[in-house]
Amino acid sequence: MIHPTAIVHPNARIDRGVEIGPYCIVGEHVSVGTGTVLQAHVVVNGWTEIGEGCEIYPFASIGAASQDRKYEGERACTRIGNRTTVREYVSIQRATGENQVTAVGDDCLLLAYVHIAHNCLVGNGVTMSNLAQLAGHCVIGDNATVGGMAGLHQFTRIGRHAFVGGDSKLTRDLPPFFLCDGNPAQTRGVNSVGLRRAGFSAGDRAEIKRFYKLLYRSNLNLSQAIEAMKAEVQTDSGREIVAFLEAESQLGVLLK
After folding, report:
1. pTM (2 decimals)?
2. CATH class assigned to 7-189
3. Cβ neighbourhood burial of 58 (10 Å; 0-12, 13-18, 19+)
4. How far is 205 from 242, CA to CA, in rounded Å?
5. Comparing C-alpha atoms, which of 256, 209, 211, 247 is closest to residue 229?
6. pLDDT band at residue 112 using 50, 70 and 90 as cut-offs
Protein backbone atom coordinates (compact mmCIF):
# COMPACT_ATOMS: atom_id res chain seq x y z
CA MET A 1 0.00 0.00 0.00
CA ILE A 2 1.98 2.94 -1.34
CA HIS A 3 0.35 6.35 -1.57
CA PRO A 4 0.60 7.88 -5.06
CA THR A 5 2.43 10.93 -3.70
CA ALA A 6 5.17 8.81 -2.11
CA ILE A 7 8.51 8.45 -3.91
CA VAL A 8 9.95 4.95 -3.55
CA HIS A 9 13.09 3.99 -5.43
CA PRO A 10 12.49 0.94 -7.63
CA ASN A 11 15.46 -0.85 -6.04
CA ALA A 12 14.16 -0.45 -2.49
CA ARG A 13 13.01 -3.70 -0.90
CA ILE A 14 9.48 -3.33 0.41
CA ASP A 15 8.02 -6.45 2.04
CA ARG A 16 4.38 -7.51 2.04
CA GLY A 17 1.96 -5.56 4.19
CA VAL A 18 4.06 -2.39 4.32
CA GLU A 19 2.16 0.91 4.22
CA ILE A 20 3.90 4.00 2.85
CA GLY A 21 1.85 7.15 3.34
CA PRO A 22 1.62 10.50 1.58
CA TYR A 23 4.82 12.31 0.60
CA CYS A 24 7.20 9.73 2.03
CA ILE A 25 10.60 9.26 0.37
CA VAL A 26 12.31 5.86 0.40
CA GLY A 27 15.79 5.56 -1.06
CA GLU A 28 17.55 3.02 -3.23
CA HIS A 29 19.33 1.02 -0.53
CA VAL A 30 16.43 0.81 1.93
CA SER A 31 14.60 -2.31 3.07
CA VAL A 32 11.34 -2.21 5.03
CA GLY A 33 9.99 -5.27 6.83
CA THR A 34 6.53 -6.80 6.80
CA GLY A 35 3.78 -4.81 8.45
CA THR A 36 5.78 -1.63 9.01
CA VAL A 37 3.92 1.67 8.51
CA LEU A 38 5.48 4.93 7.32
CA GLN A 39 2.65 7.31 8.05
CA ALA A 40 3.41 10.48 6.05
CA HIS A 41 6.34 12.76 5.17
CA VAL A 42 8.84 10.16 6.40
CA VAL A 43 12.28 10.20 4.75
CA VAL A 44 14.31 6.98 4.77
CA ASN A 45 17.56 6.90 2.83
CA GLY A 46 21.11 5.59 2.93
CA TRP A 47 21.83 1.92 3.58
CA THR A 48 18.95 1.42 5.95
CA GLU A 49 17.08 -1.64 7.25
CA ILE A 50 13.78 -1.29 9.11
CA GLY A 51 12.35 -4.43 10.68
CA GLU A 52 8.84 -5.80 10.88
CA GLY A 53 5.85 -4.21 12.57
CA CYS A 54 7.39 -0.77 13.13
CA GLU A 55 5.38 2.45 13.20
CA ILE A 56 7.15 5.55 11.83
CA TYR A 57 5.32 8.82 12.46
CA PRO A 58 5.34 11.97 10.27
CA PHE A 59 8.51 13.93 9.57
CA ALA A 60 10.89 11.31 10.95
CA SER A 61 14.28 11.13 9.22
CA ILE A 62 16.07 7.77 9.17
CA GLY A 63 19.42 6.98 7.57
CA ALA A 64 20.57 10.49 6.65
CA ALA A 65 24.30 11.14 6.45
CA SER A 66 25.90 11.57 9.86
CA GLN A 67 26.61 15.05 11.16
CA ASP A 68 30.25 14.14 11.54
CA ARG A 69 33.18 15.92 9.88
CA LYS A 70 34.86 12.54 9.37
CA TYR A 71 32.04 11.17 7.21
CA GLU A 72 33.01 11.14 3.52
CA GLY A 73 30.09 9.35 1.90
CA GLU A 74 31.28 5.79 2.56
CA ARG A 75 28.80 2.94 2.78
CA ALA A 76 27.59 3.13 6.37
CA CYS A 77 24.37 1.69 7.71
CA THR A 78 21.31 2.31 9.85
CA ARG A 79 19.25 -0.53 11.34
CA ILE A 80 15.99 -0.56 13.27
CA GLY A 81 14.65 -3.77 14.77
CA ASN A 82 11.10 -5.12 14.94
CA ARG A 83 8.05 -3.48 16.52
CA THR A 84 9.81 -0.21 17.28
CA THR A 85 7.82 3.03 17.36
CA VAL A 86 9.45 6.20 16.01
CA ARG A 87 7.42 9.31 16.74
CA GLU A 88 7.29 12.71 15.03
CA TYR A 89 10.52 14.48 14.01
CA VAL A 90 12.83 11.76 15.30
CA SER A 91 16.21 11.66 13.53
CA ILE A 92 18.34 8.52 13.37
CA GLN A 93 21.52 8.97 11.36
CA ARG A 94 23.74 6.49 9.60
CA ALA A 95 27.14 5.63 10.99
CA THR A 96 30.54 7.00 10.11
CA GLY A 97 33.06 4.47 8.80
CA GLU A 98 32.90 1.85 6.07
CA ASN A 99 30.20 -0.73 6.92
CA GLN A 100 29.75 0.68 10.43
CA VAL A 101 26.25 0.75 11.89
CA THR A 102 23.88 2.94 13.86
CA ALA A 103 21.42 0.48 15.39
CA VAL A 104 18.14 0.61 17.30
CA GLY A 105 16.78 -2.66 18.67
CA ASP A 106 13.39 -4.31 18.92
CA ASP A 107 10.38 -2.94 20.83
CA CYS A 108 11.82 0.53 21.41
CA LEU A 109 9.76 3.67 21.93
CA LEU A 110 11.36 6.87 20.61
CA LEU A 111 9.21 9.88 21.37
CA ALA A 112 9.04 13.13 19.41
CA TYR A 113 12.25 14.98 18.50
CA VAL A 114 14.60 12.27 19.77
CA HIS A 115 18.00 12.38 18.06
CA ILE A 116 20.25 9.33 17.69
CA ALA A 117 23.60 10.26 16.19
CA HIS A 118 26.12 8.23 14.19
CA ASN A 119 27.43 4.89 15.49
CA CYS A 120 25.04 4.74 18.44
CA LEU A 121 23.88 1.30 19.56
CA VAL A 122 20.48 1.28 21.25
CA GLY A 123 19.32 -2.01 22.72
CA ASN A 124 15.91 -3.69 22.89
CA GLY A 125 12.99 -2.24 24.80
CA VAL A 126 14.60 1.18 25.25
CA THR A 127 12.39 4.20 25.92
CA MET A 128 13.60 7.69 24.99
CA SER A 129 11.29 10.55 25.93
CA ASN A 130 10.74 13.75 23.98
CA LEU A 131 13.86 15.65 22.91
CA ALA A 132 16.32 13.14 24.38
CA GLN A 133 19.59 13.47 22.47
CA LEU A 134 22.40 10.97 21.91
CA ALA A 135 25.73 12.18 20.59
CA GLY A 136 27.84 9.82 18.51
CA HIS A 137 28.98 6.35 19.66
CA CYS A 138 26.65 6.10 22.68
CA VAL A 139 25.63 2.62 23.82
CA ILE A 140 22.26 2.15 25.55
CA GLY A 141 21.52 -1.19 27.21
CA ASP A 142 18.26 -3.12 26.94
CA ASN A 143 15.21 -1.67 28.69
CA ALA A 144 16.97 1.51 29.74
CA THR A 145 15.02 4.79 29.90
CA VAL A 146 16.32 8.22 28.86
CA GLY A 147 14.12 11.06 30.11
CA GLY A 148 12.90 14.05 28.16
CA MET A 149 15.47 16.65 27.09
CA ALA A 150 18.34 14.59 28.51
CA GLY A 151 21.64 14.92 26.67
CA LEU A 152 24.36 12.28 26.48
CA HIS A 153 27.99 13.06 25.65
CA GLN A 154 29.55 11.05 22.83
CA PHE A 155 30.81 7.58 23.83
CA THR A 156 28.56 7.43 26.90
CA ARG A 157 27.42 3.96 27.98
CA ILE A 158 24.18 3.25 29.84
CA GLY A 159 23.62 -0.19 31.33
CA ARG A 160 20.51 -2.33 31.17
CA HIS A 161 17.42 -1.16 33.08
CA ALA A 162 19.13 2.11 34.02
CA PHE A 163 17.19 5.38 34.17
CA VAL A 164 18.37 8.85 33.13
CA GLY A 165 16.15 11.61 34.50
CA GLY A 166 14.73 14.38 32.37
CA ASP A 167 16.92 17.44 31.63
CA SER A 168 20.03 15.50 32.71
CA LYS A 169 23.48 16.09 31.22
CA LEU A 170 25.36 12.79 31.29
CA THR A 171 29.11 12.81 30.57
CA ARG A 172 30.07 9.53 32.27
CA ASP A 173 28.86 5.92 32.04
CA LEU A 174 25.82 4.93 34.09
CA PRO A 175 26.00 1.32 35.35
CA PRO A 176 23.06 -1.04 34.88
CA PHE A 177 20.05 -0.85 37.21
CA PHE A 178 20.96 2.58 38.63
CA LEU A 179 19.28 5.96 38.32
CA CYS A 180 20.83 9.35 37.67
CA ASP A 181 19.49 12.88 37.40
CA GLY A 182 20.72 16.45 37.21
CA ASN A 183 23.00 18.78 35.27
CA PRO A 184 25.66 17.57 35.63
CA ALA A 185 24.09 14.19 36.31
CA GLN A 186 24.55 12.51 39.67
CA THR A 187 23.52 9.05 40.76
CA ARG A 188 20.39 9.07 42.89
CA GLY A 189 19.87 5.42 43.71
CA VAL A 190 18.66 2.14 42.26
CA ASN A 191 15.96 2.07 39.57
CA SER A 192 13.74 0.17 42.01
CA VAL A 193 10.43 0.83 40.26
CA GLY A 194 11.79 -0.31 36.91
CA LEU A 195 13.32 -3.46 38.41
CA ARG A 196 10.09 -4.48 40.11
CA ARG A 197 8.12 -3.88 36.93
CA ALA A 198 10.63 -6.00 35.02
CA GLY A 199 10.18 -8.89 37.44
CA PHE A 200 13.59 -8.88 39.14
CA SER A 201 13.60 -11.13 42.19
CA ALA A 202 13.96 -9.84 45.72
CA GLY A 203 17.43 -11.43 45.86
CA ASP A 204 18.56 -9.64 42.70
CA ARG A 205 17.21 -6.32 43.91
CA ALA A 206 18.90 -6.71 47.29
CA GLU A 207 22.29 -7.42 45.70
CA ILE A 208 21.91 -4.52 43.27
CA LYS A 209 21.15 -2.21 46.20
CA ARG A 210 24.12 -3.57 48.18
CA PHE A 211 26.45 -3.04 45.23
CA TYR A 212 25.11 0.48 44.75
CA LYS A 213 26.05 1.26 48.36
CA LEU A 214 29.52 -0.20 47.89
CA LEU A 215 30.09 1.99 44.85
CA TYR A 216 28.46 5.22 45.99
CA ARG A 217 27.97 5.18 49.76
CA SER A 218 31.22 3.68 51.04
CA ASN A 219 34.71 5.11 51.31
CA LEU A 220 36.02 2.66 48.70
CA ASN A 221 37.52 3.78 45.40
CA LEU A 222 36.36 2.13 42.17
CA SER A 223 38.94 -0.67 42.20
CA GLN A 224 38.28 -1.45 45.84
CA ALA A 225 34.51 -1.46 45.28
CA ILE A 226 34.87 -3.89 42.36
CA GLU A 227 36.98 -6.25 44.47
CA ALA A 228 34.44 -6.10 47.28
CA MET A 229 31.65 -6.92 44.83
CA LYS A 230 33.58 -9.85 43.40
CA ALA A 231 34.08 -11.26 46.90
CA GLU A 232 30.36 -11.46 47.62
CA VAL A 233 28.57 -11.60 44.24
CA GLN A 234 25.79 -14.21 44.10
CA THR A 235 23.47 -13.19 41.25
CA ASP A 236 23.71 -12.63 37.51
CA SER A 237 22.65 -9.02 38.12
CA GLY A 238 25.61 -8.50 40.44
CA ARG A 239 27.97 -10.06 37.92
CA GLU A 240 26.56 -7.75 35.25
CA ILE A 241 27.38 -4.69 37.36
CA VAL A 242 30.95 -5.93 37.86
CA ALA A 243 31.39 -6.64 34.15
CA PHE A 244 30.13 -3.15 33.26
CA LEU A 245 32.52 -1.50 35.70
CA GLU A 246 35.47 -3.51 34.35
CA ALA A 247 34.67 -2.98 30.67
CA GLU A 248 36.64 -0.56 28.52
CA SER A 249 35.28 2.96 28.75
CA GLN A 250 36.09 6.17 26.90
CA LEU A 251 34.70 8.40 29.66
CA GLY A 252 34.83 6.50 32.93
CA VAL A 253 32.00 5.58 35.26
CA LEU A 254 29.72 8.15 36.90
CA LEU A 255 30.91 8.07 40.52
CA LYS A 256 28.90 10.82 42.18
Report:
1. 0.96
2. mainly beta
3. middle
4. 15
5. 211
6. very high
